[in-house]
Amino acid sequence: MKQWLRLCGFLLVGLFLLVGCQQDGQWYATTIKSDPDWQHGQLENGMKYHLYQKDDEAVELRFVVHAGSAQENEQQHGYAHFLEHMSFKDTTQLGQQDVWQFFERLGLSAGADINAYTSYNQTWYQLTLPDSTDLPTAFTWFRDVADGMLLKPEQVDSEIGAVMGEYRLRLPQERSIYSQVEARLRADNTSYHEVLGTKQSIQSVTPAALKDYYQRWYFPANTELVVVGDFDATTIEAQIAQHFSSWLGQGQKVANIEPIQLPSQKAHALVAPEGTESALIIVKPLGEAQRLTYGDQFRSLEVDLLNHLIQARLLDRSIALASNASYVEAYADTFEGQKFSALAVGFKEKHRAEVQDFVAKELANLRDHGIGQAELAAAMASYQTNLKNHAENWKADDSWVITDSMFTSLFEPRTLMSEAEHKAVLVRFVAEMDQARVNKSLKQQLTQLLDQQATYYFMAYTKAEQSQQLAQDVQLFTQSLAKSGHALMLAKTVSVFPTPARKGKILSEQQVDDTTWVWQLSNGVEVWFQQMPETKQNAYMNWAVKAGRSQLDPALYPASELAFETLYRSGFAGLDVAAIEKVFSANNTLLTPYLNDYDNGLSIATQHDNLPFAMSALHHVLTEGKVDPVQLKQVKKQYVEDRAEYERSPWGLVLKKVNDSLIARGTFYNIWPSKTFAGVTDNDVQQVYQDLFQQQHHNRLVIVGDLQPADITPLLRQYVANIPLAANEHERSAVVELNKAPQVLELPVSNEKSVGYLLFLSNPVSDETKVLATDVMAQDMLLRIVNQRAFQLLRGQYGLSYAPSIIGDIPDSGAYSSVIVSLNIDKKDLAKSKQAVAELLKGVQQEGITQQERDTAAKQLALDLKPMAKNGAETARFMGRYLLHGYDVEAVKNPQRFIDKVTVEVLNQQASSLMGKQSYTIEATILPKG
């Protein structure tokens, strides 16, 4: 089931409040006309279909059945979901073959390209095809889903284990606080039951019982087909008719599913899972989700804007006041016909009173005094840019995005807009959203938070017995929120970065091929430019440095974990973090740092018009980072608390024990205890910054966009060639020695009844080992093959685990590699699971990889890499990585040539190297406590 509540990243913005925009004018009431680019049809048997033709795009397909757990009777709990599982077993037309394997041989990847889902009132089956070639095959499977599932007794019995595995995975003993919120919201609906069913209903399922549900609800008039991508509309309509017109099944008409009835109780105490934080979550119902008029769309845009402003303000103030809030998130989604907004704030339990008071006071400030002009200008920049490039942005939506919009409209009152209508609403929105209107809406909606008859409060505590303080906490929060807010000193304009006074020099420029250029700069930086018309008005950069944590002085390892957050919060170029966020927003530029074990860098996304700003930002980030002692103190405090909590958590205990067992010598790979970070100094962090950002480490800048070299050259002189980079006089390599003796760990630390089983296969990597682009491709293909075998053996044949996983930890330029087998199993199946894993490894080590497996993995990898040819961000990232670690960069531009070099022999060599009998092994079993 799709979860409606989810954690967002630091820069993601969600929905918080239902917004004003109460105008009753005729324009706002205008009904949205259906997008004429959609073609709709219906067969004589009642099955509907929706087609959208888009050139040069993959083909997305969804076969939707308007039935889920809501249609189950008391004896059928979980049957809708179980039936979905059976669609991948033997069917009438595809015959006696595993459907997963069948589509994988076409190059599709299980989970990503072929999957199915069940929810409260719908079940849907999805396929992603690279082109229209295999559309008849896709329709063949969908028709088998419709009325061709064979439901053989032996296959139903064998699938019980997989469904029980999913039950353990999706419904653990310790539920996330967001899952608990969802459960509380539907608690007053006695007819609602879990989509997965119960353990008893799953274990007692029979083919006859499944067939009863199947024939009752899978009938033509209860289904719809969505197809989006590059195809011929006339041909596809004929194919749909050919495959589905003979389907004559009849069933019961599905009653309209009404939105859930919300609980009468408005305050709820939750218990946070061990190792996670306490939280305050405020949830406000927004009514039934719909988008039927211009006014609905206008309000949707206004909601997004207010969300951005509210979350940005709270994050800015949290840093400025050194608040102990660990995250502040505002978001919304729909859940069973209802639309909700939520504000979530996380913190350590000991900081509850302080953080809840901080949130209440800052919301009161925003309510009573509004936002400043600089805040609004920064937030509106993205809307203005979207309007300027509206036609291009509209065309840039891929098949998945378009399909998802239609899919949503099948279950919500929503009409899909045309490009012209969408632009018309955006024009009016940009024209009308001034400071006075925004502040009026903010005041109106934040005032509504005090209406405790409509607002829900969820308090997550770390201990169950703390729930007795719920009423007091809600009262204290609302009392603080009710007080008058204070006016803040707000900037009137968005700041700018100063232009560097001195320019640098370009030593050489070379054209590598028709679309690639290389510059050598006087400071040692090598710049690569990949011309890509597909990026349209967007441009992407990747600053790649071959210096990660492993190249630092061992005394600086703890400081490296604090460095990026500290430097970000400290600001640069004379601006604090709030001003920096605004200047980046105003220039539609996103800068994301990364620090790995063996490299670091910056990923930048911007637009052509803002490329000078992005280059200037790169310059200042690399030259003017300073540590603010106040911010370091706060970062240390939060990090020490987080690490201490993690150390006590089940997974913290497991990974610490595994790490200590694996590493015989090598301080770089230690998991540092929480107390270590308390001793990090300003100078330590500053030294990390200098060692990683201000020294020569084979630094490379990759630029990708629809540009000309002449556009780039002056910017390189002005902003990049003048970045001072000191010579690196202390080239280091991480020291690491692995424990050779096999180790078996039994760790009774889990709060779950299920058992976790991990097997680590680790191998040292010699400094002399030359890794090629072909090896990187082969490693990817090998992991695909072993995952497919694990799926077929551990889930399909033995029914031991719903999602067995083979994870590769193979860092570029790393000192050692690890391949990890991960299972979630029933305790009674532990011995059998170990035997099955041994069987899996024996097959890889002794029987090797087959030609068919190689060909399947090659098709999958080629299809997964195909979109990179149009994706500027991914091209920049991969080119930076390949250039830095000595792989042939041509593999980024022409991956197929390198995939073709991966033979069965190469795959078996990689299997021997990564998973051979010589591997150092650690077997860890995570058992329930006690």
UniProtKB/TrEMBL annotation:
What is any Pfam family matched here?
Answer: Peptidase_M16
Q: Which residues form the Peptidase M16 N-terminal domain?
A: 55-166
Q: Known InterPro entries for this protein?
A: Metalloenz_LuxS/M16, Pept_M16_N, Peptidase_M16, Peptidase_M16_C
The processes (GO biological process) annotated in the record are:
proteolysis
The organism sits in which domain of life? Bacteria
Q: Which GO terms describe its molecular function?
A: metal ion binding; metallopeptidase activity
Sorted alphabetically, the keyword list is:
Hydrolase, Metalloprotease, Protease, Signal, Zinc
The residues forming the signal peptide are: 1-22
Tell me which residues make up the Peptidase M16 C-terminal domain: 204-381, 680-861
**UniProt entry tagged with the keyword Nucleotidyltransferase:** no
- Per its UniProt record, what Gene3D superfamilies does this chain match? Metalloenzyme, LuxS/M16 peptidase-like
Q: Which family does it belong to?
A: Belongs to the peptidase M16 family.
Designated name of the protein: Insulinase family protein
